[in-house]
Amino acid sequence: MNRETALQNKLAVAILVFLGAALASCSGPKSDFVEHAMLEKTEIPTALAIAPDGTVWFTMDLSPAMGRIRDGKQERILLGNGKRNNVEPLGLGVDAGGTVWYTDTLDQAISSITPAGETKKFSLQTPITRLGRLTVAPDGAVWFSEGTAYSITRLKDGKITRHVIENIRGGPYGVAVDAQGTAWATLQGANQILRIGIDGKMKPFEVPTRSSSPTDITVDAGGAVWFVEFRGSKVGRLADGSITEFEVPSKSWAGLSGIAVAPDGAVWFGALRDHAIGRVRDGQVKMFALPREDARPYTVAVDARGNVWYADISGYVGMLKAEVAKKP
After folding, report:
1. Domain 3-46+135-325 belongs to what architecture?
2. Which has the least CB within 10 A, 16, 22, 188, 288?
3. pLDDT band at residue 26, thresholds of 50, 70 and 90?
4. Assigned CATH topology for domain 47-123
């Protein structure tokens, strides 16, 4: 099996796990981007998060290590004894103190690495584990989606609190927490956005486009909730109890994945099948073609300067320069 086939198969598996207007012009000459090829060709960058000091952290599928880019230099940080590969590490976040949190499927745990290199594991105490995205809330709590437990789960001070989803179609995947501590999640199979109040009460919101499979989710500075529709090729915005959808121009089904809000309020996302990243700003969608025709941007993040980072499962971590990202 060649590398291209292996990557395509890996993407297909990830999709199955968590599923089960005129075309706008694209921009993106190579000079607009900086890309880092994986140090080991077999490793697949998956989730990506940015630390307060600007370090870019990323998990790698089929790897015994985690990656980071600091001051333009890429490094591999071995996990545990470095002898076992992680599998589908889709969840990653960094807290205010610089501690990195990630989903650890094989150990059925949520694991962490402090800036000093100290590691901890928090067992989920389940016989099998399948995990989606992860985020760190303003209060330092770690939230993550737990497919096997049918839960959006909170970890704080070593205590695990599960918010079990009643909808049998469920399919939890993405999770975000706003400034007030309210958690928001995507339910792929149910085609819903789920609100979890600080009192633990849950309220679902139906996504207007049927079978759109909402995946990644985030919250902007004003409290509006943004999400991508993997099958619907739309970006959704939930505010004041109402959802507005922005159609993503695409030559085909775009396969949207990853979402982040920039300091200027623009919302960024990845388009796997269109080999591009996109931006929603002032209600307008613009696409930026990535430098390689086989690019598959799976996760995106934006740093304090406005540089847009993406984890490309074809084997790269890349960055669209801020001066380009901010242009009209």
Report:
1. 7 Propeller (2.130)
2. 22
3. very low
4. Thrombin, subunit H (2.40.10)
